[in-house]
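User: Hi! I have a protein structure encoded as tokens and I'd like to know what sequence might fold into it. I'm fairly new to this, so please keep things simple.
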């Protein structure tokens, strides 16, 4: 069974009027286009050509959610729970309405995720930088009382990163936040030039937001086209700019940590947050026509396939999806049945097929359950 999947872009304010439009070869949109969901999550199941939703076919059982993501402005800083945390949190909040702004858990699943850059440059914040590195960066911020307060708290014993994030987001540190953001504007460091540039742009879009100082504690990651990062449960992150293909466990659970007018539950964020510092490894694409992006979770797997005008046979685990991101491509089963063309920005859903025949010239991403 091969089905064509489409969906309307979600118009979150951080989206882009041009990135998805350029991918699909159409004029810029009048409103921001942020995400296109290809999945059966009840929040926005994909559309079928006959007017049904994909969830009508799957019954809502897909273990993964595939997306196109286009960011013109920084997303909120956020973290996702483990499966155990999600189950406990979802059960605890059953008395809240589904759209209650105080609700943290929309479902009972975890949400590890992988994003692959489609734009030539994709910027993200991911994970927490080692404290000693951040203290070295702060040497360029001068010695205002707010900056000194931040330095002092980072130098304290114990889990300093958790304590500092709780202090920044708790509502009692606005004076210090404003002073640090003011010092950021004139800070100069050759070692941290990229980090300062990215966070200044975050600050320009979020004046006075404590999340700007949280961003100063995080690693800045710059991906080139085809490169990817995997974001495990508990890892603080925020996408800053660019276009990408994102795949995650089928969940919409988000705990926010700044850069947003939405609800921030500081206590729950800190309970879920993993403050282990260190870089987020960049996964480079392979040199072969088929590139895999290995991840340590069973919910999903993702491969990139480049087609040069011929055919490529790809074995898949069911159910699979094929998302077209460049060129003119088609997908068919190996039994010789009729294939379907997959337009750029749309996907094909394949169930009942253990092997797919991809043809044409361009690029596709193949999503499937993990091994």
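Assistant: Happy to help. Inverse folding works backwards from shape to sequence: for each of the 371 positions I chose a residue that suits the local structure. Here it is:
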């Amino acid at each position: 069974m091969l089905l064509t999947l489409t969906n309307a872009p979600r118009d979150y304010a951080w989206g882009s009027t041009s990135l998805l439009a350029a991918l699909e070869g159409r004029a810029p949109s009048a409103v921001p286009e942020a995400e296109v969901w290809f999945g059966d999550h009840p929040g926005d199941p994909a559309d079928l050509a006959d007017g049904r939703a994909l969830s009508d076919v799957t019954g809502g059982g897909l273990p993964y959610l595939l997306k196109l993501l286009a960011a013109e402005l920084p997303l909120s800083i956020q973290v996702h729970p483990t499966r155990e945390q999600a189950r406990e949190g979802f059960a605890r909040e059953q008395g809240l309405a589904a759209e209650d702004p105080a609700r943290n858990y929309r479902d009972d699943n975890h949400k590890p995720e992988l994003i692959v850059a489609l734009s030539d440059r994709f910027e993200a914040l991911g994970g927490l930088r080692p404290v000693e590195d951040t203290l070295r960066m702060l040497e360029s911020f001068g010695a205002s009382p707010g900056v000194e307060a931040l330095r002092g708290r980072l130098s304290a014993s114990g889990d300093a990163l958790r304590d500092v994030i709780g202090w920044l987001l708790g509502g009692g540190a606005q004076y210090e936040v404003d002073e640090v953001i003011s010092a950021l504007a004139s800070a100069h460091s050759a070692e941290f030039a990229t980090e300062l540039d990215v966070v200044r742009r975050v600050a320009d879009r979020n004046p006075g937001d404590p999340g700007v100082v949280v961003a100063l504690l995080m690693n800045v990651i710059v991906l080139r086209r085809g490169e990817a990062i995997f974001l495990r449960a508990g890892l603080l992150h925020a996408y800053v700019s660019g276009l990408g293909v994102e795949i995650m466990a089928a969940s919409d659970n988000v705990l926010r940590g700044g850069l947003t007018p939405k609800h921030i539950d500081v206590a729950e964020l800190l309970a879920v947050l993993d403050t282990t510092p260190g870089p987020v490894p960049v996964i480079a694409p392979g040199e072969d026509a088929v590139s895999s992006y290995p991840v340590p979770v069973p919910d999903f797997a993702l491969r990139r396939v480049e087609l040069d005008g011929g055919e490529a046979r790809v074995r898949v685990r069911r159910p699979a999806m094929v998302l077209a991101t460049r060129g003119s491509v088609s997908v068919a089963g190996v039994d010789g049945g009729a294939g379907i063309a997959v337009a750029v920005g749309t996907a094909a859903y394949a169930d009942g097929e253990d092997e797919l025949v991809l043809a044409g010239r361009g690029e596709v991403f193949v999503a499937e359950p993990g091994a």
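A useful reference point when you look it over: The two ends are 22 Å apart (CA to CA). Feel free to ask if any position seems puzzling.
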